[in-house]
Amino acid sequence: MDHAKKVVLAYSGGVDTSVCIPYLKKEWGVEEIIAVAVNLGQGDELEIIRKKALESGASESLVVDVKDSFIKDYAFPAIQANALYEQRYPLGTALARPLIAKVLVEMAAKYNADAIAHGCTGKGNDQVRFDLSIAALKPNLKILTPAREWGMSREEAIAYGEQFGIPAPVKKSSPYSIDKNLLGRSIEAGILEDLTVEPPEEIYEMTKAIVDTPDEPEYIDIGFTSGIPTSLNNKVKTPVQLIEELNRLAGNHGIGRIDMIENRLVGIKSREIYESPAMMVLTQVHQDLESLTLTADVTHYKQKIQETYSQIVYNGLWYSPLKVALDAFIQQTQKRVSGNIKVKLFKGNAIIVGRDSRHSLYTHDLATYSAEDKFDHKAAEGFIYVWGLPTRIWAQH
Question: Can you tell me which residues bind ATP (predicted)?
């Protein structure tokens, strides 16, 4: 097989991506590896990770900070779409992958590399998301997937790495597979694979157990401009600030935990645990603001495409023609989705208790049952006659 000489490697600092470096060199003849760690707010010691790549044999090691773009260009459009995969998961991990792929393609162009490599295995969704995103952005660029092909167990991979001076993990590895970024955490494997077992409290980091949450509710105000969250408690926030602060506020009240059986793209059902406080609250609040500012037909039609949009993102098709077309529709719907929503955070629940928008389609004089009622009740009889005419004709035959 004709493998590349200069490769950009998606690098996380873990066992698999570290072992990829000597493996690509020895087994596949790669001469130069540029390791790229993408900062999505995962909280890792990225300078340590950068140095580890060099110690593992990388020619260069880069950390690229894309937190702002991650929220503004990926998370916020998903909120505008009310995107929840299988109506539950707000796509925190899936949204990160097309951005990482974009960074890898940009670095490949910058360093004149002729291939990109990643450490995804053959069972997960991420391999699809990376491969398809790279293919959409740079169709002729080679993609190397050593972890999908080397057939080593974790123990064998560690032993392989030790031959080349890569130290084994100094502490006992967590039994869980965890992915973390600004939008939340995904946790799988270990005891969670037993579907009868309640997830142990130790797996959570961003959200409190209900028993430990405050005994008094907390009220917050979230402001939106054209479908984008822009303020928290009447203070304008940057995208990253808003997500970070709302993660903390909602997580403190135990909001944002998801325990679901998920249908992976590769055909496997898996149990996934998610923590995503800010995204869960923002999606709920955005959808409520839409109910106030969009007409009925637009609301109902948009609901039909939201599951399609979520599947597209989950299945790695962020840079696809259908996604671009749906984006255009969604953006058109968002022009008047501006206003403020008051939310009560309490014991695992985000309860919407107040709404206000200058684009509100709620008319008090038509909705009220008081003396101020301006609705023409006499018009109802003719409306019902015309509306029910097909039903009456059908019933007579």
Answer: 10-18, 119
126 is in an annotated binding site: yes
The sheet carrying 184-188 orders its strands as 177-181, 184-188, 269-275, 257-263
The one catalytic residue among 177, 212, 226, 248: 177
Angle at 241 between CA 11 and CA 244, to 5 degrees: 65
Query: What's the CATH superfamily of 177-294+336-356?
Result: Argininosuccinate synthetase, chain A, domain 2 (3.90.1260.10)
Would residue 248 show up in a list of annotated catalytic residues for this protein?
no
* pLDDT < 70 stretches in the chain: 1-3, 169-173, 366-368
Q: Is 124 annotated in some ligand binding site?
A: no
pLDDT per position as a tens digit, 179-204? 899 999 999 888 999 999 999 999 99
| 61 annotated as a binding-site residue | no
DSSP-derived letter for residue 73 is I
pLDDT at 16: 87
- Residue 13 marked in a binding site: yes
At the topology level of CATH, where does 6-163 sit?
A: Rossmann fold (3.40.50)
Q: What is the pLDDT of residues 123-180, one digit of tens each?
A: 778 899 999 999 999 999 999 999 888 888 878 888 998 888 888 765 556 788 888 9
Whether the CB-CB separation of 66 and 48 falls below 8 Å is answered with: no
Q: For position 171, what pLDDT does the model report?
A: 57
Strands 177-181 and 184-188: antiparallel
Rounded distance, CA 280 to CA 85, Å? 12
**Residue 177 designated active-site:** yes
| Residue 385: exposure state from Cβ atoms within 10 A (0-12, 13-18, ≥19) | exposed
Is position 154 annotated as part of the catalytic site? no
Q: Please state the separation of Cα 355 from the chain's center in Å.
A: 26
Tell me if residue 376 is catalytic: no
According to the annotation, is 186 in a ligand binding site?
yes
What CATH number has the domain spanning 364-395? 1.20.5
92 marked ligand binding residue: no
What residue spans define the domains of the chain? 6-163, 177-294+336-356, 364-395
Taking the CA atoms of residue 175, residue 176, residue 179 and residue 182 in that order, the dihedral angle to the nearest 10 degrees is -110
Residues 6+ apart with CB under 8 A from 372: 364, 365
Determine which one of 50, 56, 97, 257 is catalytic: 97
Distance separating alpha carbons of residues 131 and 116, to the nearest angstrom = 10
Q: Given this model, what pLDDT does residue 333 score?
A: 98
